Records
---
Amino acid sequence: MRVSVCVFILLLIASGLKAEDGSGLWLRNNFASPVNVVGSHKSTIFNVAKQELLNNWQGKENATINLLVKKDKRIIGDGFLLSSDKIQANTDLGILYGVFELLRQQQTHQTVSEKVYNPSYELRLLNHWDNLNSSVERGYAGKSIFWRTGENGLVVTENDKRIWTEYARANASIGINGAAINNVNASPDILRPDRLERVKAIADILRTYGLKLYISINFSSPKIVGGLSDSDPLNPEVINWWKEKVKEIYTLIPDFGGFLVKANSEGQPGPQDYGRTHVDGANMLADAVKPYGGIIMWRAFVYSSEEDDRAKQAYAEFVPFDGQFRENVIVQVKNGPIDFQPREPFNPLFGAMKKTAIMPELQITQEYFGHSTHLVYLAPMWEEFFHSDTHQEGTGSTVARCTDGSIFKHRTAIAGVANTGTDTNWCGHHFAQANWYAYGRMAWNNQLTSDQIADEWIKLTFNPETNVRVALPEDWSVNFLKPIKQVMLESYEASVNYMMPLGFHHIFQASHHYGPGPWWERDGVRKDWTMPYYHNADTIGVGFNRTITGSNAVAQYHEPLKSIYGNLETCPEEFLLWFHHVPWNHKMKNGNTLWDEICYRYDSGVKQVRQFQVVWDKAQPYVDAGRFDAVQRRLRTHAHDAQIWKDACLLYFQEFSRKPIPFDIERPI
Ligand code: GCU
């Protein structure tokens, strides 16, 4: 008996099967056939590509695959041409991406046909909000995978190297080619020599899978680390300090990517501290990294409490600078004008800054989506964002086309705030892995649908067949793939429903952003950090008036959006309370009053999550016990939380609407 158990365990280890803990992410393949790989380029990445193919080939036994590094004008950047017997690319990295695409098609049972795959964005980054003390800001999956504390915190261990290698491989498999490895609220210490040694060690590993390394910097570093009297970007000593620091970094890391900067935002230092502008700050740094091919990603996430409407401020501050940034500066803009809320209209900066490279910043970590407890697949939200039409250069000027080089010819880039940590399954919730996966896939191709990505991810992550040449079992597709995909696709809208339907935003409990807190305010706290600022409920109605009679934020949108959003009758209902202060008895399109509709939306969100529980319970025969239990447990909390959201918000807003809730309230608390 004992012997057979041992043999079984050995077999599991030998096959690399990582069934129950989720550590294998979507790279769980444990079956390979022999294959001949032809191609003799000599580089680490090329060898890695070859090895991936040899280790994971699932096509015809003893087939021959040609890996060909040869320029072809149909292939752009890290793109590749894939056919059933050949991968051709301009670069070795293109070959690696081609190999991962081929393997993905095999593992998801697709027929490989000849096609060119080019990336939508040249730079596809993760931003880690990892602190040097190993905590992760808005991180819900354990500690930092890059930074450790303690006496030996800076010593690079074999375990560190293993984690960084698996991390790099996972990213390469979905086309991510860069990572900023410390928090945008940056500690100046990142620039001290001992930290830079560790940065170098990380860069050396990420490079093997084609990832470039970037760091976030603190604008006051010349003063704090360098001991200068100030950090004024026009002070020659400061300029020189940065030049020397950059030289030091490039000596350690010759292919270093550049800096990510959060300046004059939420208390962080910046050029305005010295009466200078974003342009002064960004260009000074851009000049320092330019000789080495580096870039500066300068964030546009700025707002101050003095203004009447936070949603207007990034646009107001940045649009006047259009055309003044160096060509190696990319302005990084969050998808919405406030802050990664459950649903926001797109940030009006997209398409408006025509002479500046603009990159979208998405949030993969679920700061405003129930952390790693709620099951929320974010791809539908990103899909909605990419397809939003800015109308800036005529109809069809979608955010995707405004940022991916189709309309404006600047460098293209995209960033996602990572959800990774030291948890065994990397992301806290097994389904949160899907958001990391989806981000990478959409950064590679911003036209992929959330449906297609969910389909791929489920097959790769939960496929019961180790040998893909055996067709997927019919019952698995019908009883698992289909309903689980449906859950994923509905989960985003469900969250919007039970948290912030109809354009509500930022009514979270202050600071942790997990539960509801539409009532939250304190004496002495700046207004835009209190919640009634965002919903403005009174006895007449609710919502933020951003029309011409209010803050007039609608004016930042190009026509016809300005008129559509600005008119209560034409404003899409999902943005109603974002743009309007609406009377409680306003008639909605379905005939309900606003108040009743708010009640029903909250209620339908709760019902949706309960339905997800039912679906998951039925999935038990198709999932290993470890992952089944973990997801089931979280869904239980998720449903309970959804109910709390509904009851708390409805009871609170009822104080203003003074109307009955059209169903029995459950009061779980
Ligand atoms: C949000 C988030 C902060 C973060 C900030 C940013 O406000 O809550 O933790 O630092 O965004 O993106 O800079």
Note: The domain at 123-450 is CATH 3.20.20.80 (TIM Barrel).
---
Amino acid sequence: NRNDTEPHIAHVFRGTFVHSTRQAPVEILTNSLLGVDDEGKIAFIEKDQDASRLSKIWGFETSKIKQLEQYEFLMPGMVDTHIHASQYSYSGTALDLPLLEWLKTYTFPVEAKYKDLEFARNIYTKVVRRTLKNGTTTACYFATIHTDASLLLGELADKLGQRALVGKVCMDCNPKVPQYKESQDECKKETDRFIKELLKKKYPNVKPVVTPRFAPSCSSALLSQLGEIANNNKLHIQSHISENKEEVDLVKKLFPDCKSYTDVYLKHNLLTDRTVMAHGCYLTDEELETFHETGSAISHCPNSNISICSGMLNVRNVLNHKVKLGLGTDVAGGYSPSMLDAMRRTLDTSKALTIQDPQHQTLTFEEVFRALHKCVPSPSALSLDDQIGNFEVGKDFDALHVNVCVPDGPVDVFPGEGPEVILEKFLNLGDDRNISAVYVAGRQVVPFPETQLSVGTF
Ligand code: GUN
Ligand code: FE
């Protein structure tokens, strides 16, 4: 009873589905059926339904149902709200200097190499594959100042099937490493070209994001131009804010007319409901109020905050101010490309704050689970909330097929453990070996198809 113009069912799963809803940070549906249509959208999710009735309504064969086993479940794909694709080559090293020294010594010399497109292709291929394999279905990427290499990152994300926001980095001030920057005029022209060319490709799940590196790298004139470009084109914006104390003092010196770091971005029209600012460790309550009023989000990057001794963001205080919050790996300031690591480091930092101050209300693993794929409070930090984030009918099917019990895997299970325990064990102990498939907009992108195994230089 369905006609040919309506979408057909591409996948049906039966088993346990775990996600977050507006009401509950963790909802576990057992013995349920989830259908995905051939446009990659969730067609139905129903508990205790008899499959034959659904198969008649939707026109699929019950023999095609994928049955999840006892220690398997589906959960939404994870969203990395802050990652430097261009820094992936040295992730796991270079963690011995504080931010400003770290940028000058390690980061800028490496990023300068992305003028070479073959160099870029190798590393960008690897970072997209590595993050996809680890369950990052959406990544908000910083590339470098090079337009062509940034376009290549967009092309690779599309080809390998990751949902991505890609930012060509903008910076017209770099007194310590002057060979790695652009003029203000070049920055504007190249940002315009980057946006135009990326949009022209019509990739369904890859979009440009306006990316001033951070206030100390940008002239006031450049910040204003970028605010204008973002607002005229209704684009996302990403940058860094209040990551370390030395940086906060530097911004005070560089922008004496602004009353805070937040005020710098506010005055240049860069705080919108499509903005994601990384770190925010030293934001005052007044600054957090500005974030709330403008609808801007914070990307919490705990691995990076600890690894380069930047600070500890009080996420509880951010949530109390009803500021949107997502999690980020901040590779390579953060050494791990895994969002499961970002979740664990988030809990560690919260517990360290409780050790310092027993009045501090520690985050629960359920709250942090929600922030993995759905920013809190909704709508999402990436303003993709109507499209992704959980398993509601009509949303894109971005999902992980988790199997907690794989041979020689990192998790042991014992009799009597139900889905709550299995979920918590996966979140605390699991890794990519437990992620047996990854879907983005209904397309299975992990395991990698054979034809993609030869992409890049290995
Ligand atoms: N602030 C400005 N640039 C960067 C960067 O590349 N990484 C981090 N962690 N902070 C920054
Ligand atoms: Fe960063």
Note: The two ends are 51 Å apart (CA to CA).
---
Amino acid sequence: MNAPHPQPIALQGAGLVKRFKTGRTHIEVLKSIDFDCRHGEMTMVMGPSGSGKSTLIAALSGLLRPDEGKVTALGEDLWSQRPGRIDKFRLDHCGFIFQGFNLFGALTALQQVTTILKYKGYSPAEARDRAAIALTEVGLGKRLEQRPAELSGGEKQRVAIARALAKDPRLLFADEPTSALDGENGQIVIKLLQRAAKEHGAAVICVTHDPRLEAYADRIIHIEDGRILDDRRTADVAAQAKQSALAGA
Ligand code: ADP
Ligand code: MG
């Protein structure tokens, strides 16, 4: 019936627990989370504010060490590595997109992208070419010399996406990437993330509480109070709806 999932697993978390100490109490923010996602797929992580979404992607992406559990990223046991190795892993393989864009105020759109590419080891000329291509792909080919103050919110987020995609990351993490944007710009941004999955084979993990984005997901994970409540592929959802329609006919 259903074809096996064609794409390999890119990222897997097993038994992830994270606690924070606030004053004298510990709060458990991740309560033994099992998570995986595949190359070429857009996985949406949804859930109310404070449910642990940002903590989860921080643990999965090497930004925040979990107290328990294991993260296997592109076949590597991420948290068993030396800190320097984790930093290198992030630089080589991960792209990040945040709600607040996280651009450098003093740099032009082009420089935002070339800086990270040079840091990764590209020559200045290669970095420039790659950056210009990445910015053109997100529709900013004519805005290369603009600084953040001269760009709209939607344009700023597209610069952040170009910066993340220019290094062709295998893992792309987006934390509420559309929440500072209006509907139209949000849609442009989410379609670019979808393209990173479909055309570049990245595993895209997108945290959002915007239900309008569900339509772009291959898989939707609902998290509440540090636990996964629901995990389904949208193809399964569509198939289920079809089945029950047929059963009802
Ligand atoms: P979400 O992204 O779903 O809104 P978060 O992962 O940011 O949720 O946070 C989950 C819970 O953990 C919240 O109650 C938050 O206050 C708490 N929290 C997050 N980071 C820290 C921290 N560094 N120290 C203490 N508590 C934190
Ligand atoms: Mg958050």
Note: Strands lie at 9-22, 25-38, 42-46, 68-73, 76-77, 94-98, 171-175, 203-208, 219-224, 227-233.
---
Amino acid sequence: MNQQKLQQEVANRRTFAIISHPDAGKTTITEQMLLFGGVIRSAGTVKGKKTGNYATSDWMEIEKKRGISVTSSVMEFDYQGKHVNILDTPGHEDFSEDTYRTLMAVDAAVMVIDSAKGIEAQTKKLFKVVKQRGIPIFTFMNKLDRDGREPLDLIGELEDLLNIEGCAMNWPMGSGKTLKGIYDIYHNRIEMYRQKGDEPQFVELDQEGHLPANHPLTQDSIYQQTLDEIGLIKGAGNQFDRDKIAQGKQTPVFFGSALTNFGVQTFLDEFLQLAPAPSAHEMTDGTTLSATDPQFSGFVFKIQANMNPKHRDRIAFVRIGSGEFEKGMDVTLQRTQKTLRLNNATEFMSSQREQVKTAVAGDIVGLYDTGNFQIGDTIYSGKPKREYQALPQFTPELFMEVTAKNVMKQKSFHKGMQQLVQEGAVQLYRNYQTGDYILGAVGQLQFEVFKFRMQNEYNTEVIMKPIGSRIARWIDPEQLDTTMSSSRNLLVKDLDDQPLFLFENRFAENWFKDKYPDVKLTAKL
Ligand code: GDP
């Protein structure tokens, strides 16, 4: 591909993740987008979990049970001249460090909020990670077909709970049974509410932002109320600010209903215009690598194991940071400086796995891996050495004590443990005094996957004893006195032998702080 073509292709990429609390409507809105993209023909096909019809491939049992599949990890489609990549961030029990790391591989995030519930716990957690990256965040207030909270309240909550300005791009005219339409401030038009399946209907507004005088809605009190509210937000609300949006300091807010496919297209159209194309990355040596650099490079942000038990393969998910990926190309693995030939790559679709055609900066490729890759690895082609910045470590919240069931299996237990920890599947700690193994994770699923893989790949049955949810805080070794620990603040050390306490709860942490006011405790994230 020549340079001009590469620039064009990269400029068309839109790579994002949807963050939300379970049940806010992420799956539903994703499906609507895939429908627009022509990837699926009917709703209800994205996750086996929801419909019971699993995809044909035979992936890891645990994944099948939970309905997580690699095909829904990355979904891509072409829409209005853009090549869209949606990276899934699983919620529910599926929540894991992968969920967080996936947010390191996107250029923007869409936050879906249930307009009856407002901002919920999981959204807050994920938001925090996205916010740290400083990438643009777009908000979709969903379920407008039901009675929800006041739109002004919902926007206010963004500022109060998430500390981000909300800028209304459109405004609901009524809600639930009284829903009339969406007042699209950005396009100066109204999208009329209609039955699901009917064609979208838009009415253009005049320069004042008013309906034509003869339009029946002008007589409706809801329209009048909308005009009042629009007046209010235009006067006193946050003004649309491209720079703030680009830095993640302001979030454009859209209203709609994913289920009735109302406002989703308006959202998608505007989102794809406003969301950024892949941009340059800061490298560890202080240089900036342009996305349109002709040399291919990328980093591994996720490794998914044993999707096909017959082959015991793993897939390393690589976010392309620059250049073009070509099947069979030789790359250097930065960590080892070894050359690898990338023969086997997979393209992600919602219904099948296919061999990759073209993939450029912004796209995700899945590489079949026989154990070469670790999370965070850089691969690159060409002479100049490249190294992407390390992915952040996420402080685990759930902990388990783990031992091998059969003492004769100690060797494979240690090997499995070492490899899985290296791969980033779980985090490992040891009891400061006894040296017992303690695993840390951000979601329960990580433990289940760990247990499953120890059994399947290392033939070792493990016994796991839950310690439960804890708050991890590091302590300066100079200040440490082992008598400070108790069952309510378990003392452990991390892989670098750094000591930390696992506090039972906030109360235990505060109690400790009161007792030892001079001791400095730090959270990693
Ligand atoms: P997820 O857990 O965030 O992926 O949520 P889903 O997309 O699975 O949606 C959760 C539930 O909310 C499902 O029963 C959906 O049918 C429903 N739902 C999603 N969007 C809407 C909406 O716009 N209006 C209404 N009334 N229900 C919705």
Note: The radius of gyration is 25 Å.
